[in-house]
Automatic annotation (TrEMBL):
This is DNA primase. One of its GO terms (cellular component) is cytoplasm. PROSITE patterns: TOPRIM. Signal peptide: none annotated. Belongs to the DnaG primase family. Binds 1 zinc ion per monomer. It comes from Methylocystis bryophila. The gene is dnaG. Its cofactor is Zn(2+). It is an enzyme of class 2 (transferase).
């Protein structure tokens, strides 16, 4: 009797493997697994493990492996239908009644399976025969040994149009069955069906039990229309629902704790021969949802090992989009992009197993690959593009269904984006040095080369001077230190450029200071010349007086003129350090507030309180600086 996958999956969901095993074996919980003495061998040290999340048991003493059905079959010597009946009773599920239609379908599947097995045997025989010489030469050039050929049941399809058809007909297969098995080409314009695979090295594609259900063929002729050709979709074969070498890799994957997905048949064979038997490959398609599920049944974080060329990158990007809605705590993907654009087979031949092992030692997590895809080579020089990237990250994170993991992705990407933009601001300063002319004030109507320029008329207007955007004590100190100690500008130019002042006058003074730092030689700045006249000419004299008034009664001697440059530098470093901390915390604060607005949760509420506490602690640190507290009065924060 044939049981539907949904019925078997429902039993597995209702009856954990540990519940089946505990009826016969004393097992104890250790972490996420259960452990006990082997029921198959006599031993003193436990080597029998059960993993409920993955739905399997594994006995290291005997190598036996399987699910709850397998365990009953192994320990009680019963058939699969009998094991299903027992577990269905434990699950409280009635056994399905097989209809005449289902019996006919099972019979048809058995016939297709038999014909495909005959085809695999025929192809193997052809490879060993006289017609298979060119195919054997090709495999020798690819360094696929006879032992590997036998292990993977490689074969050869002769160039004749009816070679396979006639051979299978001689065994009793009908043309209709061969068509349904995907072995023959047919159609309205094809009067006589003919072999689908001709003059190709043949790779059997097997189900979980190792039974051939389809084939892949690699053309030997250079002028072949398709280099690789797979069987079409059939009753037995759905290419998005299986993986090449799945039947061999399952046990190895469970033993090693990981599974590696590569791109091609030859890559799988080469990797297996080199000591990496836990290797599979998709079947000429982008990784599907169902294939991700197969990988996760073997390992929590499968490694996708793609060629390091553009096609490999493209495959990695598509895999990210497929996996994002599916990942959850303990279930993700890792990525390895091989060096030099090589595939695994090429890397093995050029560098040996050690080169592949080295590449596999540092796989990239999914979040890192996502970050690289969205940021590498992207220009972020405008607010619109930066906002677009931020929105893109929110949209991608929203695809993650698990709420906790989604919040962690949002936080990680927010932090990375903040760091990226901070680094970008720091990189601007050297460019400004090289293009110092871009900071000089221009006549009205002239191009500023991208710099924010304030003309004398605008800077001196009542409208401009009347703007009273609050400025924080921290911003006030930064500007006054640079005004009264201009020799520090060049050394801290990157820090000055990176500050995002809120007040319009502060930004104008910042621009003027950057211009002075990039246009004057350091020797001139070291002489401590007065720059108040330039500030007055720029229409910023009133703003400077306002800043000086803010510190008039504070004991901030290092900010004032006449203080040693070394003392001023110490104060500057203190204020800059506080500024960076506050800027980073405020960015995260805004990100958390956005998340709370969309999806309130206790974790983000706690993080919000934590950030606010850290900001309050920094306020206390500011107050402890000499003179800072006496001038601050805890005014509203402008950073």
């Amino acid at each position: 009797m044939k049981f539907s996958p949904s019925f078997l999956d429902e039993i597995r969901a209702r009856v954990p493997v540990s519940e089946v095993v505990r009826q016969k074996v004393a097992i104890k919980k250790q972490g996420r697994e259960w452990r006990g003495l082997s029921p198959f061998n006599s031993e003193k040290t436990p080597s029998f493990y059960v993993n409920d999340p993955k739905g399997f048991f594994h006995d290291f003493s005997s190598g036996k492996h399987g699910d709850g059905f397998t365990f009953l079959m192994e320990t009680e010597g019963i058939s699969f239908p009998e094991a299903v009946a027992k577990l269905a009773a434990m699950a409280g599920l009635p056994m399905p009644v097989e209809t005449a239609q289902e019996r006919e379908k099972d019979k048809k599947r058995a016939t297709l399976t038999e014909v495909l097995e005959w085809a695999a045997e025929h192809f193997q025989k052809q490879l060993r025969g006289p017609q298979g010489r060119e195919a054997r030469d090709y495999l020798a050039r690819r360094e696929i040994s006879p032992a590997a050929q036998a292990q993977f049941r490689l074969g050869y399809s002769a160039p004749g149009r009816h070679d396979l058809r006639d051979a299978l007909a001689a065994k009793g297969a009908t043309v209709e069955t061969m068509i349904e098995a995907g072995l023959l080409i047919h159609g309205e314009e094809v009067t006589v069906p003919y072999d689908r695979f001709r003059d190709r090295v043949m790779f059997p594609i097997c189900d979980r039990a190792g039974v051939p259900i389809a084939f892949g063929g690699r053309a030997l002729a250079k002028d072949a229309q398709a280099k690789y050709l797979n069987s079409p979709e059939t009753e037995l074969f759905h290419k998005g629902f299986t993986l090449y070498n799945l039947h061999n890799a399952r046990k190895a994957a469970h033993e090693t704790g990981t599974v590696i997905a590569v791109e091609g048949y030859v890559d799988v064979i080469a990797m297996t021969a080199a000591g990496f038997p836990h290797c599979v490959a998709p079947l000429g398609t982008a990784l599907t949802v169902e294939q991700c599920g197969l990988l996760w049944r073997m390992a929590e974080e499968p490694i996708l090992c793609f060629d390091g060329d553009k096609a490999g990158l493209k495959a990695a990007w598509r895999a990210i989009d497929t996996a994002l809605p599916l990942i959850e705590p303990g279930r993700s993907l890792r990525f390895v992009l091989l060096p030099g654009g090589q595939d695994p087979d090429e890397l093995l031949r050029s560098g040996g197993p050690a080169a592949v092992a080295e590449a596999l030692q540092a796989p990239l997590p999914l979040v890192e690959m996502l970050w690289r895809r969205e940021t590498e080579g992207k220009a972020l020089e405008t607010p619109e593009r930066r906002a677009g990237l931020e929105r893109r990250f929110r949209e991608l994170s929203a695809q993650i269904r698990d709420p906790s993991l989604r919040r962690h992705y949002e936080r990680e990407l927010d932090q990375r984006l903040s760091q990226l933009l901070d680094a970008r601001d720091r990189r601007l300063a050297p460019a400004f040095r090289r293009r110092g002319e871009g900071f000089r004030r221009q006549p009205a109507g002239a191009s500023t080369g991208g710099a924010v320029s304030v003309g004398a008329a605008l800077a001196g207007s009542p409208l401009f001077r009347g703007v009273k955007t609050p400025i924080s004590p921290r911003e006030c100190l930064l500007l006054l230190i640079f005004v009264n100690h201009p020799s520090l500008i060049a050394e801290h130019l990157e820090d000055l450029v990176a500050v995002e002042f809120e007040a319009r006058e502060a930004r104008a003074l910042q621009q003027l200071l950057v211009e002075i730092g990039t246009s004057r030689p350091q020797s001139e700045l070291d002489c401590d010349p007065s720059i108040e006249e330039e500030i007055e000419r720029a229409g910023l004299g009133a703003f400077l007086s306002r800043l000086e008034g803010m510190v008039a009664h504070a004991n901030l001697w290092s900010v004032r003129k006449g203080a040693a440059a070394s003392d001023a530098a110490v104060s500057l470093r203190q204020v800059l350090s506080l500024h960076r901390k506050v800027s980073t915390l405020n960015r995260e604060l805004r990100a958390v507030e956005r998340r709370l607005a969309n999806d309130p949760c206790e974790e983000d509420q706690a993080r919000l309180a934590e950030i606010r506490a850290q900001l309050s602690a920094i306020d206390g640190t500011e107050a402890s600086l000499e003179g800072f507290g006496s001038m601050s009065g805890r005014v509203s924060r402008a950073l």
